[in-house]
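WARN retry 2 of 3 for item q-0093 after timeout on previous attempt; input resubmitted unchanged.
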Amino acid sequence: MELPQKKMSVAEVQDSEAHGKRERRIGQILLDSGKISESQIEQIVHIQLDRGLRFGEAAKELGLVTEADIQRAIAQQFDYPVIQGGDLQLSRELIAAYQPFTEQVEAMRAIRAQLVMRWFGNGRQALAIVAPSRGTGCSYLAANLAVVFSQLHQRTLLIDADLRNPRQHKIFNLPNNLGLTELLSGRTNEAEILRIESFVDLSVLPSGNTPPNPQELLSQRKFHDVLSVLAERFDVILIDTPPAGESSDSQAIAVKTGGALMVVRDGITRLEGVRNVKGMITGPGCELVGTVINNY
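OK item q-0093 returned
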């Protein structure tokens, strides 16, 4: 005897998914994000049960979602903040936000792991990101490292200390009329630190206006005091610096943080420049934590 079939509600369809609560959340996330409609859920579940697939795999099999859609849904499921491809408020340079499952971002996470072991895991909180010359991707690396640290649920602050040619306000689409310059010169306070809404644990302090005396501002005791205050609010403080070959600003910053990560690029960075940076950074109270070869 064949029992009459009952039309299932959306909730009942999701409850019937083969892989339990975790899969129900994937379906709900895809539904909430507009990737699938309620009318498509029964079709997806039918394929899922018929072929023994996960919900996302079945939706992909039907051509309703892409692999990127599934990965972003999984990221949301595990509270791993990413940005949808259609959101263009932030620069595409933030690959850790837009393309978190690529080879490039996996390399960023490997750098993060090394920094946790070698630096931040030893009670340090601030690190300067330095480069011998422009074109190495120093700002790019600093921005993406800030994102991946925030994705680890570390309260992360990115400071743009390149007071000569700042870029972080452009990458994060922020105003730059007030920032580090004004903070160091006593014309504003820590209220100019801006939280990035897409990432709960990420904040940025832009450079502010270009001062006539950047080296003097960065060398004064005030910078050290500011970092000490910020260390009470943040777990990780990354500082983007101007090229070491153009000024001694990065050296002044590295002395305040006690350590630096150097960024070089094949075909752009000269060996002499690497030696100069190492000589500038390495000294009493300051350590060159490591060197990153940027191939992206």
